[in-house]
Amino acid sequence: MSDKSSSRPSGFDRRAFMAGAAGSVLVPMTARAAAQDANAPVAQDPSLPVEVTLRVNGKDKHLRLDARTTVLDALREHLKLTGSKKGCDHGQCGACTVLIDDRRVVSCLTLAVAVEGQEITTIEGLATDDRLHPMQQAFIDNDAFQCGYCTPGQIMSAVACVKEGHAGNEADIREYMSGNICRCAAYPNIVAAVKQAAPEIMRG
After folding, report:
1. Edge-to-edge, what's the strand order for the sheet holding 119-121?
2. Would you say 91 and 151 are in contact if contact means Cβ atoms under 8 Å apart?
3. What residues have CB less than 8 Å from 192, skipping those under 6 apart?
4. Contact of 50 with 63, CB cutoff 8 Å
5. pLDDT digit string (tens) for 25-49?
6. Is residue 83 within 8 Å of 124, Cβ to Cβ?
7. CA-to-CA distance for 191 and 204, rounded, in angstroms?
8. What is the dihedral of CA 63, 57, 92, 77, to 10 degrees?
9. What string of H, E and C letters represents the secondary structure of 89-154?
10. Predicted structure pTM score
């Protein structure tokens, strides 16, 4: 005669035990992770505007910008200084060239927040009162532009070229102005303009 009690399931459930043990381990781990996350610094959303002060043509300009705004877009879209042109928007044509602390920079590839406190000079800041900058006058005298779209960048780059000491001869001028493209091919006249303006800029 068989013992019916031996066919009854045991009071110990192995699966339930394993599930309970795993849960008891996960609960404190989850709690610790939550506590760590609560104390971790929250990353700022890059799309949120930031306060920035740009010094442009000798004046401080206080702006509220997307942190990803370039110097070119800050100048054109926020400050309405449209002399600097957006050509390729890839830093290859030179139409957007400005001076930052007297260094020529392609402003379409430079973040505005990265140049806070530095002196930005645009084509609008070259003339003094009613007197054109020597390079501006030289471009007019030598007919160094046709459509005029690249001209502001050409002039800003030419000023830097002279100040860098690279305007001693025509070969150097061509080499150190090669980053600025003129689709109208006014290059001989541009070289002549740089040669004309160089002595006065160096004296000044």
Report:
1. 59-66, 49-56, 119-121, 97-100, 103-106
2. no
3. 138, 142, 144
4. no
5. 445 555 555 555 556 666 667 678 9
6. yes
7. 20
8. 30
9. CCCCCCCCEEEECCEEEEHHHCEHHHHCCCEEECHHHCCECCECCHHHHHHHHCCCCCCCCCHHHH
10. 0.78
